[in-house]
Amino acid sequence: MSAKNPDRVVIVGGGTAGWMTASYLKAAFGDRLSVTLVESGKIGTIGVGEATFSDIRHFFEFLDLKEEDWMPACNATYKLAVRFEDWRGPGHHFYHPFEQLRSAGGFPLTDWWLRNGPSERFDKDCFVMASLCDNGRSPRRLDGSLLDQDFAEGAGEPAGLTMSEHQGKTQFPYAYHFEAALLAEYLAGYSIDRGVRRIVDEVRHVRLDERGWIDHVVTKEHGQIHGDLFVDCTGFRGVLLNQALDVPFVSYQDTLPNDSAVALQVPLDTEKAGFRPCTTATAQKAGWIWTIPLIGRIGTGYVYAKDYCEPEEAERTLREFAGPRAAEVEANHIRMRIGRSEQSWKNNCVAVGLSSGFVEPLESTGIFLIHHAIEQLVKHFPAADWHPRLRERYNSAVANVMDGVREFLVVHYKGAARDDTRYWKDTKTRAMPDALAERIERWQVQLPDSENVFPYYHGLPPYSYMCVLLGTGGIPLRPSPALNISDETAARKEFAAIRDKAKFLVDTLPSQYEYLAELRA
Ligand code: FAD
């Protein structure tokens, strides 16, 4: 390893993680970095129709890409919330929206709702997004403006903040659904235009130097490829980090048992059928089914635990759920590696994407984790001395974000009132990550806030926990006792304001279909 600045980056893997990394590094460092990406033409990528977090907008902004540039190319639609169906019991649903929770009289509105909410639906009473989802509205008006002044589009925000720096300052009102494979292709074009070298070939060997650092990779047809920093984006295979550098994988399976998925891409006439601007997660006997609306099709899949359900049964359940439109569609069975690599950065190799880690897609965190990792890589990019503290900081940021997301997902299962099958019964007695049991006990007395949720940045604000606990309904909660002797006038006003605003927005916003048709025209 020469004592020069590491300015040659070799990325192995051309899925969403590979091309997001390549494009972001180019946008960050321009020609001061040479970037080569090697991707196999034979080993496929994961691309099931993905949903995202609202923070993804910072990624596109960083690349200076506008919605009209990339959305049509990726069959993208808007996502205002996740809609959970049947988690409490058959026929029940609730939304986890992209919308900050309001407060009244110094208490979160959810406390007031628990004490004396206007209706049975906390999501409709406390957030406007639930009504917009029910009514298929677009978050933008036909002139392109955002739905409401309250949701300031970056107004007053300092430019160039990373998503962790943004958290808590604003809550952007929507995220996207898109085809990850199309996004990867779109970003490949962006990256190649900016000088990234693309090699379509398979990495057969990874050669280490005497210190155990990667010296070069050997491809089937293009010989050796040398670099300074190697980014492992090879998906669940972890060809560089796990296989060549022997970094162990820490499984989350004891707390999150879903390890399999079967996916279908169901054709849909979007204009005729219309579609909700949200991801839907419908609880099933041994897991849950996602429904992700895209332009021209629905991405759907059953995430399940193999200990509770055979793949054939999962496919049968999914086909029944999707109906006759899916009859001719081929099913894609996927085995998921749930957990994270012990370290995501070892020596001169950083894993980004599924090779670094993955939790099941219940809250659409896969691409968020990629985005977070890339931001951290830029922030901790090494110099000639490869200072170990930078790697340590990177590794703890990545481990924390994944552990935090894991904990948030476990709350969904612990909290679900549903207990009609062995799978759902076991969710109540399964092991929990350290400290979660204690946190749940606290939330039963004081609803989640910034001081009593997972303490490190993991992308989920306290109100998200509140939505899941209030929605899934299996953990008894109570409002702050102080409300018994507080004046509720301000809370009543706030509930009324939300109801009026929701009605106004439903009446005046175009449907999501109308807006996207205009954008694509
Ligand atoms: P992959 O897509 O697997 O790409 C791996 C790349 O490595 C490919 O290009 C392959 O050719 C290449 N490769 C492998 N070995 C070699 C080799 N030896 N030589 C050269 N190249 C090689 N995320 C979300 O944000 N929202 C969602 O709703 C969501 N849903 C998901 C549902 C399921 C069932 C699964 C499994 C994942 C989901 N994800 C979701 C995660 C998301 O799809 C992935 O994080 C994302 O696509 C990135 O994948 P990747 O690039 O890490 O890996």
TrEMBL record:
InterPro entries: FAD/NAD-bd_sf, Flavin-dep_Halogenase_NPB, Flavin_halogenase, Trp_halogen. SUPFAM superfamilies: FAD/NAD(P)-binding domain (SSF51905). Belongs to the flavin-dependent halogenase family. Bacterial tryptophan halogenase subfamily. This is Tryptophan 7-halogenase. It comes from Amycolatopsis ultiminotia.
